[in-house]
Amino acid sequence: MPQPEVRRSIKRSAVSDQQRRRELALLRQTQQRSDSQNRARRLASSVFTLSSSSSSDLILPDKGILTRAADSEEHEAHLDESVAPARELNVVQASKLKGREARQWFARQLMLPEWMIDIPPKLDRDWYVFARPAGNRCFVVSSNGTTISRLRNGSVLHHFPSSLPNGSRTRDSSGPASSYCVLDCIFHEPDQTYYVIDMVCWRDYSLYDCTAEFRFFWLNSKLAESGACNSPSTYHRYRFSVVPIYDCNQAGLHAAYSTSMPYTKDGLLFFNKHAHYQTGNTPLALVWKDNFCSQYFLDTDSQGLVPTQQQVVLEMQEDGKLTTSDDPPVEFGSLEVDFIQKSEFRAGNLLRFAIKDESVRVVDGKLEIGDLQFISKSNRARAFADSYSKVFFQYAARHSPLKIEDIAASILPNLPDDSPIVDVEMGS
């Protein structure tokens, strides 16, 4: 895989923007405890309501797979004015969503990791690490005697019976018919297995406001008890499996990175032990990749090739500004009015750009892009623009990647709590 010749040293600040976001995220979750039970119930209901009400879905009974037809341009551009913004929908309103709005609603329900652009302090004490399975990220919801998996873009992946609580119509089903479970999974195509990376709700008990430490404990104990990890059968079409989760000390990092797994790896995931299940982008979960543990270290184009120039997908706002998917969004440029009108772009369109390498600067640890070259509209199935951390990670990956040796070097044993943050210079 050819690499650009330009190499640059990227020095991160002693306290980076990402670290500040981590501190704020931890502070917010202690100050604002949401109604997590209602949130979990709304998500579970919406999975089934959207599935049954959408005329653009086609169920194939023989394989239990449900696929979505291409959304019309009209659905992309317009939405019934009576429907509230997707972030605030109840189940009745969510059932009306089609196309991009449905994709955005479901994408917002997942906890999306930021890309690791700096190394968190106290990594060995406050964080878990595990090897991310390659495959499709999805929610799996069991309720009313059936199970549905829905991708992060809103489309249904599988509709099937399972051994999850209330996940199939069998005589030994336990619990009320209204009982439901919600799991955060990655479907690994080669072995037809759902690898569960988080537990959102179990038998009506919401875990949104529980720490990752507790969620992972319940995940490992409850999933095995349910029989969901058993081999497929008539009433259990797909196997579920947990992933090995390690404390992020030297031994745990080495195991996650180097140990052979029953699935294809796609990078490492780091979870803060104190983090609640926060929907949307969060710095309390981080993804990191290199060529050894991921086939997709550098982003590829539609042909599966690494482009010469880094490419980004940004969302066009009403005023022509081009922004990331972050909250608040980060602006990387803008389009002229004449170009917008000629191209018939609308606010909310996702547009793909190439970045001129010489136009990129890192100032005080922040990425600045001086020139964007328009390529095309993004794939319509996509729900969101790139995040700021992804753009930064991909830039660093091309010029001065954060290496596994850097992460390992930051894990120093037996340090007191007031030890200074170890600053790592990412060099070639």
From TrEMBL:
InterPro entries: Snurportin-1, Snurportin1_C. The keyword RNA-binding applies. Residues 1-21 are annotated as: Disordered. One of its GO terms (cellular component) is cytoplasm. PANTHER family: SNURPORTIN-1, SNURPORTIN1 RNUT1 PROTEIN RNA, U TRANSPORTER 1. Belongs to the snurportin family. Functions as an U snRNP-specific nuclear import adapter. Involved in the trimethylguanosine (m3G)-cap-dependent nuclear import of U snRNPs. Binds specifically to the terminal m3G-cap U snRNAs. This is Snurportin-1.
